[in-house]
Amino acid sequence: MKISSIIILIIILFGCTPKERHFITNEQYRNQVKEQFNQRKALANNRYDKLFQIFVKEEMSIEEREALEFLYAYMPLSDLADYDGYFFLRQVRTALEARSLFPWGKTIPEDIFRHFVLVYRVNNENLDDARQIFFNELQSRVRGLSMAEAALEVNHWCHEMVTYQATDGRTSAPLALRRTSWGRCGEESTFTVTALRAIGIPARQCYTPRWAHTDDNHAWVEVWVDGKWHYMGACEPEPELNMAWFSGPVKRAMMVHTKVFGLYKGTEEKNFESPIYSEINLLQNYTETKKLDVNVINSDNKPAVGAKVQFKIYNYAELYPIATKITDSNGKASLTTGYGDLIVWANIDDKYGYVKIPAKEISATVTLNHNVNDSFEDSFELIPPKEQKVAEVSSESREINNKRLAEEDSLRNAYIATFINEERASRLFDEIGLWNMNLRKELFKYLELSQGNHLEISSFIKKSNFESPYLLPFLASLTEKDLRDTPERILSDHFSSGIKEQFMTNNQQVVDFLAKYVLSPRIERELIQPWRTFFVGEFSKLGISNIGISDIIYLIKENITICDENYFNCPITPRGVYELGYSDIRSRNILFVALCRAAAIPARLDPATEIPQYSEHEIWKDVIFDEEVEQASKAVITFNDSKQNIIKPQYSIHYTVANFENGDFNTLDYEDDEALKKLPASITSNPGYFRFIVGNRANDGSVIVNSSFFTMNNNDRKNFTVELPEIQGKMMVMGIVDMNSRVDKIDLNHTTLKELSNDKGVVLCFIDPGKEPSKQVLQNLPTYIKELESWNGAVIFVIPEDKLSVGFDTEVFKGLPSQTVWAVDFNRNLLKTISNTMLLNFSENFPLMLFLNNNGGILYYSEGYRTGIGENIIKTIKENEATMK
After folding, report:
1. Helix, strand or coil for residue 317?
2. Which of 120, 220, 477, 638 could form a disulfide with 682 if both were Cys (CB 3.0 to 4.6 A apart)?
3. Nearest CA among 129, 36, 126 for reference residue 82
4. Closest CA to 866 of 885, 847, 840
5. Domain annotation covers residue 636
6. Which residue range(s) make up the domain with 75?
7. Is residue 144 assigned to a domain?
8. What is the pLDDT of residue 8?
9. Per-residue pLDDT tens for 814-831?
10. In this predicted model, what pLDDT tens digit does every residue of 432-448 receive, in sequence order?
């Protein structure tokens, strides 16, 4: 017995040691990952110590090692260039810990966990340790909940931290967004996906790349719960899954997609697939779809094999591709899309052709019958999918959820109240001995813009020479988002070390120029990092004194290889490009500007084309890396307004110019160019082949598009009249509202629609001030403040009583017309009156926007999410005035 017991004990101790678990159980797939990992290891050899030494230095389980290898195998260049192995190992360990801690971890299939929990990147955000911090904060909050309840609870937590506000295109890291407490939809959805993945719930960010019925796009979240994908509005919690303010608009979408990290074997249709990522089509989750088959032929009627086919919709005055395919050996390509009109564009090199495909058509033929420099004009109308109704939640559930939202608003507002104010700023200025009142006033503007990052900006001001003429221009060169998420140490690296002795001047114009194009770390939309002193040190190591443009171009050409594997389009930092030795074209161009500025050479990316440029004798000169070209004389295009236009045309809203490159037209980015704010105005461009587009969108979302194709040579000048295409059909009275209807102002005084109208009419907007669509209207109307104030009728924002939270403050919304009135709709009485008049079954699809003429006739109506409402209101007002003359 003793011998038997000893044998059993030996077997237990040595013979039955559990075998370590594989992260990837499919051997064939595991081998594919290993092969791809080795390829990436060779590519990133310049950063071997920072990325791969961790496999030697750190003890890992088989599961951890395979998970880390999976991340390395498929990560974009930006992540190989800008982060280290310890960052990625922390991501792996926290993801595996969440899977073991929460009961739903055992229910998640291996592939779903691999692609939608483990992966640290959501889109093109800057990365941070949010996963670890969110995991620690959320685990107790969701303990004991079902998977669906946990997903909803996480979204409530996200709403406590972040709410919607429009901002620029750089995507802040989740922790930086939390510090600010607000962001655009792409940032909110990144934040929410990160939080869900932190507790082991699979999640992905979904996009409609552009809406078909209005000029915008949107991002939200899909979450995998109990075997199925559901959607939710990010940081916008609803009582149930598959419920959001965009439930109606997404039924009019022509595409919803998401990028998937790694070699993905899912069942969804792939719009695009490469060895390291896929873009999958999710539209069938939201609306009725059709399969559109396209046949591309050459001018000789033979199949165009390998042609690039782009499926396009009109948006922001350009034809924007919602998906791109390549034709097969028979010249065919297909796409699952919605029931709206499309433009299908195809090309092989510089031969191109296009065709409009009506909503009901399921097949089309495109002939490559155009060449570069073909001059012609075209006109067409595009009609989006029709509006559809959506189901509503019960009033009881809605009321409970609204109370939670109000509580969460108060928590967030309490945090926002800790941001710096004039009193705290005054104490800071006293502390550092800054007594110049004008300078104090100017610096306070930047402190106020820094919001949750005010301690870092305060520290930067403390450590800087605030008497320097460069301080204010330097701060002015930064974006508002830079002020909100850049640490002091990084700003100091650029400001303190960037000022050279030769910069000393009393010429303010020179100071402003040098601050913007030499001292500033802001180049494009990359994360600001302290690259300046690093590059100065590298110049010294290379033995280059008095470095010039030719030296910088040579340095880049010799050391940087262009690679197209930066698929999330997150720009690589200049130092990251330099260290890795591989880059996408965009990040390479950013590196060029950074090297120039480190060498005290003024440089930038051209605002319209993003071509890298340097300044020589006050002239901007292009740098073309891929070919030797002489500096060409510029061509000039002048835009003139038309007397026929009811409203003032705006670039990127009503018209654009695009230059032909690589088989397609790329829109020149003059959206923020002050020169185009008022017509006539001119732009300069390199010679080339161009397309001029003018579009006018009707209230139903349809759009009429006129286009001209033309060539510009050296020193050519061309004039265009921006005349908005006429939309056929007269205004209709959609109902009559009693102008004696009572209006309860938010200050508790009451009046009537007639008393407020000033005999001009009424713009009436019912809003839910906590939701993105209503906020967009409030942010859009200030664009038309001059027109609205000149009209001088009533602008009334009405908040249903059940949507009015205790902490609501009208002062938050700036730039509204002086005649604006805020009102409360008790028991939704006024809203019910409007709904009954128009036979609307209206519930929660805010905002509801109307224009009433002086007799109460409803001449304009818009329900739910739609951009361009302000423009349409102005059109209606002017058309109404014209009929009264």
Report:
1. coil
2. 638
3. 126
4. 847
5. no
6. 27-204+219-226
7. yes
8. 46
9. 889 999 999 999 888 888
10. 999 999 999 999 999 99
The per-residue pLDDT for 829 is: 86
- Over residues 691-737, the pLDDT tens digits come to 999 998 887 889 999 999 999 999 999 999 999 998 776 566 677 78
Inter-residue contact 196 to 205 (CB < 8 Å): no
Strand, coil or helix: what is 343? Answer: strand
CB 653 within 8 A of CB 215: yes
pLDDT band at 643 (very low <50, low <70, confident <90, very high): confident
Does residue 70 carry a pLDDT above 90? Answer: yes
pLDDT at residue 632, rounded to an integer: 65
Query: Residue 749's domain is classified under what CATH number?
Result: 3.40.30.10
CB 576 within 8 A of CB 534: no
Q: Give me 790's structure tokens.
A: 């000149």
Identity (one letter) of the amino acid at 639? F
Q: How confident is the model at residue 630 (pLDDT cuts 50, 70, 90)?
A: low
Question: Based on the structure, what is the number of domains in the chain?
Answer: 2
Identity of residue 56: V
Task: With respect to residue 680, please indicate whether it lies within any of the assigned structural domains.
Answer: no
Domain-terminating residue out of 195, 226, 257 = 226
**Distance of alpha carbon 52 from alpha carbon 37, whole angstroms:** 11
Strand 762-766 relative to strand 848-852: parallel, antiparallel, unpaired?
antiparallel
Chain position carrying tokens 């039924």 = 251
Please say whether the beta carbons of 828 and 707 come within 8 A: no
- What pTM, to 2 d.p., does this model score? 0.88
In a domain, 571, yes or no: no
Contacts 24+ apart (CB under 8 A), 726-734: 726/644, 726/696, 727/696, 727/698, 731/859, 731/860, 731/876, 731/879, 731/880, 731/883, 732/859, 733/857, 733/858, 733/859, 734/838, 734/858, 734/859, 734/861
Task: Kindly report the backbone phi and psi dihedral angles of residue 678, in degrees, each rounded to the nearest multiple of 5, phi listed first.
Answer: -140, 135
The residue among 854, 859, 885 whose CA lies nearest residue 792 is: 854
Classify strands 655-661 and 688-697 as parallel, antiparallel or unpaired: antiparallel
Q: What residue type is assigned to position 269 of the chain?
A: E
